[in-house]
From TrEMBL:
One of its GO terms (molecular function) is hydrolase activity. It comes from Phytohabitans suffuscus. Gene3D superfamilies: Metal-dependent hydrolases. Residues 3-188 form the Amidohydrolase-related domain. Pfam families: Amidohydro_2. The lineage of its organism: Bacteria, Bacillati, Actinomycetota, Actinomycetes, Micromonosporales. This is Amidohydrolase-related domain-containing protein. Belongs to the metallo-dependent hydrolases superfamily.
C-alpha cells in the first residue's frame, strides 16, 4: 500500500497568499481533488493525507475536511490551529463536528513563520500541544532548519506528544553544501553513535 502522507490542495482566491511569490508562477492555478485523483492515477498511491496549506485560519479546515468527505482518496486531514489559543480544545471539537471531521488526523501551525526563537518554549504553546495530544492527535512541526534544535528539545520535553517533522526541517537545498551544513549544524554527530 502506498500512502502520500503530505500534500496540499488550493484554489485561486482561497487565501493562499504565498502563491503570489513570482517563483511560484508555475503552480499558481487551482489544484483540487480532481487534479489530485488524476495526478495519482496509475502511481500505486491508494490513500493520501491532505495538509493545511498555509492560510493559517480555521475556515480552511472546513474546506479541507469537505474535500475529504467527498474524495475517498483522502484518508486524513491535518488542519491548522494555533497551539497557543486558549480555545484550542473547542477548535478541535469543532473540526470533528464538521462534515468529514472523522478524517481529522493531525494539527499543524506555521511555526516556520515565528521569529521568536523561544516560541516552542512558551508555556501556552506547550499547553496547547498537550491539548492536541489529549485529543489523540499528533502535531506537525513545520519548522526552519534554525528551529530544529528547539523542536528536538520540545519533543524531548513532551514525550507524550506525537510529532511529525514536515519537509525534513526545511534544509536550504538551493544553497547546496552550505545549506545542508546549516541544516545539520544543530546535531553534533549524525548519525547518532550506536550503543
Amino acid at each position: 500500500m502506498i500512502v502520500d502522507a503530505h500534500h496540499h490542495l488550493w484554489g485561486a482566491g482561497q487565501g493562499y497568499a504565498w502563491l503570489d511569490a513570482p517563483a511560484l508562477a508555475p503552480i499558481r492555478r487551482a489544484f483540487g481533488p480532481g487534479d489530485l485523483e488524476a495526478a495519482v492515477e496509475g502511481s500505486g498511491v491508494i490513500r493520501t493525507v491532505l495538509v493545511e496549506g498555509g492560510r493559517c485560519d480555521t475556515a480552511e479546515a472546513q474546506l479541507l475536511l469537505g474535500y475529504a468527505k467527498r474524495c475517498p482518496l483522502i484518508a486524513g486531514v491535518v488542519a491548522w490551529a494555533d497551539p497557543a489559543d486558549p480555545a484550542l480544545a473547542d477548535t478541535i471539537a469543532g473540526y470533528r463536528a464538521l462534515p468529514g471531521g472523522d478524517r481529522l488526523v493531525g494539527i499543524r501551525s506555521q511555526v516556520q513563520a515565528e521569529r521568536d526563537a523561544g516560541y516552542l518554549d512558551r508555556a501556552e504553546v506547550r499547553r496547547g500541544l498537550r491539548t492536541i495530544a489529549a485529543a489523540g492527535l499528533p502535531f506537525d512541526l513545520v519548522v526552519r532548519a534554525d528551529q530544529l534544535a528547539a523542536a528536538a528539545r520540545l519533543a524531548g520535553d513532551l514525550p507524550d506528544v506525537r510529532f511529525v517533522l514536515d519537509h525534513l526541517g526545511k534544509p536550504s537545498i538551493g544553497d547546496g553544501a552550505a545549506g545542508f551544513a546549516r541544516w545539520r549544524a544543530p546535531w553534533p554527530r549524525w548519525p547518532p553513535a550506536r550503543t
